[in-house]
Amino acid sequence: MNRKLAIVKQSSNKATTKQIMKECTLETGRRACDVATNGTVGLDILSDEIVSEQLTRNIQFFGLESQRKVTESFVTIIGLGGVGSHAASMLLRSGVGMLLLVDFDQVSLSSLNRHAVATREDVGIPKALCLQKHFSTIFPESQIDARVQLFDASAAEELLSGHPDFVLDCIDNIDTKVALLAACVHRGLKVISATGAGARADPTRIRVADLRESINDPLSRTVLFFPG
Hints:
Blueprint: H1 17-35, H2 49-54, H3 56-62, H4 64-71, E1 74-78, H5 82-93, E2 98-102, H6 127-138, E3 143-147, H7 156-159, E4 166-169, H8 174-187, E5 191-193, H9 218-224
Parallel strand pairs: 1-2, 1-4, 2-3, 4-5
Helix pairs in contact: 1-6, 3-4, 5-6
């Protein structure tokens, strides 16, 4: 099966955000056409020799049909800092077929100690476009939609459309986090919320639970009892 591997050109430090966004948007469109001209994600790409080799460990562990479910899935990640960039990166490497990446902020030097893929050359680039650029070279078959945008109630209809299989809340602002969680609950969307992990040193104590069951986490408590 012939397939053109798409490569996003590395942008210089002097490139403007508008130029970078244009490059990434055009590249995403080419990649989507190469992979799924009928608009369907994940149905055919596992038959590609390169893709199947890249995901071979996943397929061996989960089985082909389970991996197909991953490849056909659509996940929205809002907040692309230390938590969101790593979550998005691992979803991509797992073969998720469609990702919507949302963050209004830019990569800074202080981001580099915790960001999943950013380098010094990415400083000043919007985090969403930074991930899109790197992701297109890691797993170009995935359709990546990057939005340089702050989530709020007015943006919910636009950013939560398309029936995502999961929404990842990786936001560190209380008001924005509450607005996103409320919008997901209202729409019946499955949402996974990252809460307080700063200055914690024992990973064995991490638990996945209902927000109402959280303990010793000021961020969870603030969200849970947020007025209104």
